[in-house]
Design brief:
207 residues, 6-stranded antiparallel barrel, alpha+beta
Amino acid sequence: MKHEWRKEEKSIYLPKQKPELIEVPKMKYLTISGQGNPNDPGFQKHIEALYPIAYAIRMMPKSGVTPEGYFEYTVYPLEGVWSLTEKGIEMDHLDKNELMYTIMIRQPDFVTHEVFQSALLKAKSKNDNPLFDDVKFEEIEDGLCVQMMHLGSYDDEPQSFEIMAQYMAENGLERTTKMHKEIYISDFRKVAPEKLKTVLRCFVRKQ
């Protein structure tokens, strides 16, 4: 039976439109890091370095290789951890050119470094993205987080972060870093800005 993250991992990917505390375990990811405005073509190039590898892993049995423990699954959504350069932190407004990011796509547990390397070679044989060599295979643990679903434009996210900050203050929680994670449930190329669904996640500890 096909593993559908939308159905079987709702607590991680489909929270409600109000803050909640969640413990997110260690998971495997394809990751790539960059800096700059996410509306610029360079950001799209980073995304385009991840998906061919993710789909090469997903389609391995069709190319005659079935990794040990393989099961059918839906490719996971794009995620991104966002922060600012030192210059960006000192500015009194958000300059998107000063954004730093690591974008990622989660991988099933059966994926190993060997599986990743094999998929990377497959992706390189079909595409010529110069950023393929910047993609890493990593295990990342988000740990204790406050998260909520943000509905609407990315530019309206501060309103949701304000609600999350209030929840943290009321529940004796504090952020461990100014970085935050976003999980893109909607495809921004196909969905109107006001209907975009994005999971917002802050890394926290109990005070």
